[in-house]
Write a structure and sequence with these properties.
This protein is mainly alpha-helical. Helices cover 76% and strands 0% of the residues. It has 4 helices and no strands.
């Protein structure tokens, strides 16, 4: 169980690092990718997701459900049942109200 948690944590950290770097490269003024457009962001995030899944697999998380798209793909291939996939897909949605509450509290 702990290797699965470690793998999910490492994978999520890698995904956030790649994603935030891509967006920062796009919007910060004196970078080479400034104003590159939506294709730049899509390629960066998809590459970041691929590297994050590989990092999660390498650190012990065989499932590596870092993104609902991964869960949907596994459901379509018969790895998961539909009820289990709905649980995995709803996980990020359940954290959204908590994140928004923290954001609102920090704003004050």
């Amino acid at each position: 169980m702990y290797s699965n948690l470690l793998g999910e944590f490492i994978g999520t950290a890698v995904l956030c690092a790649f994603g935030n770097t891509v967006v920062a490269n796009l919007v910060l003024k004196d970078t080479k990718g400034n104003g590159a457009g939506w294709v730049h962001v899509n390629w960066g995030w998809s590459f970041g997701l691929m590297i994050a899944i590989f990092a999660a697999w390498a650190t012990g998380s065989g499932e590596a459900d870092l993104n609902p798209a991964v869960t949907l793909f596994k459901t379509l291939n018969g790895v998961y049942t539909v009820p289990l996939s709905l649980i995995h897909i709803s996980e990020p949605t359940r954290r959204t109200p908590i994140s928004y509450a923290v954001f609102c509290l920090k704003k004050k």
